[in-house]
Amino acid sequence: MPNVGKSTVLNALRSTGTLGRKTKVAKTGDQAGVTRKIGTSVRVVEPEEKGGVGAGVYVLDSPGVFLPYVEDGETMIKISLVQGIKKGLIPDEILADYLLYKMNLWDPHVYRRYCAPTNDIQAFLLAVAQRDGKLKAGGVPDMGESAARVLSEWRKGKLGRYVLDDLSDEALRSHELMVTSPPLSLNQGRKAWKEQRKENSISK
């Protein structure tokens, strides 16, 4: 998956497993897509003559591979909230609206510094804009910046530390069923339909 820390792990392995190599060799960032291609091999363990193993250990950094098909919009929103896809594919206001819904389920007091519990995303973002100074010229609330602020605060753990997925027994059983019998994508459905038509025509 994109943006799960592959490049960060590589840098850490190199720093601790090699002699005098403390600089980063892999570029890192808090957004998906920083690593654009497979890099050259990087030594993370010294060879035996330098106190390491054999001829040394080398690893490759690679871009994240994203799922070609996401079964529903809510899953896509969750992936975007944890920065698993490129910023901007889903507007911040939509992400903040979903996050407000989840915070109300978890504990609405996590955002009490902004306002009383509410289901109104516009009222919530207005309160964020007023408290944190996310205002345009003339004091007009900047809803986009307010939404970005909410997402940033949540990702830092300042709006509670909760799991986005439902981990109840029923939800886990439902997920297991989905994994064993995944839904068809549009292309897969078309292919299956064409194959069925072909079989029907042959049988006639």
Keywords, separated by commas or semicolons:
single chain, 204 residues, Conserved Hypothetical Protein Ylqf, Chain: A, domain 2, two-stranded antiparallel ribbon, mainly alpha, 3 domains, 2 strands, GTPase activity
What does the secondary structure layout of this molecule look like, with pairings?
Elements (H helix, E strand, L loop, with lengths): L5 H12 L24 E4 L11 E3 L13 H9 L10 H15 L14 H12 L10 H13 L13 H12 L5 H18 L1
Antiparallel strand pairs: 1-2
What is the mean pLDDT?
84
The portion of residues assigned to helices is 40-55%
- The name of the CATH architecture of the largest domain is Orthogonal Bundle
Could you say how many structural domains there are in total?
Answer: 3
Task: Look at the helices and sheets and give the structural class.
Answer: mainly alpha
Radius of gyration: 24 Å
Taking strands numbered 1, 2, ... along the chain, how are they ordered across the largest sheet? 1-2
Q: What profile does the largest beta sheet have? A: 2 strands, antiparallel
In percent, how much strand structure appears in the residues? under 5%
Judging from the principal axes of the Cα atoms, what is the shape?
flat
According to CATH, what is the class of the largest domain?
Mainly Alpha
Task: Tell me how many strands there are.
Answer: 2
Low-confidence runs (pLDDT<50, min 5 residues)? none
Order of helices and strands: HEEHHHHHH
How far is the N terminus from the C terminus? 46 Å
Keywords: GTP-binding, Nucleotide-binding
InterPro entries: GTP-bd (IPR006073), GTP-bd_ortho_bundle_sf (IPR023179), P-loop_NTPase (IPR027417)
Pfam family, one: MMR_HSR1
Protein name: Gtp-binding
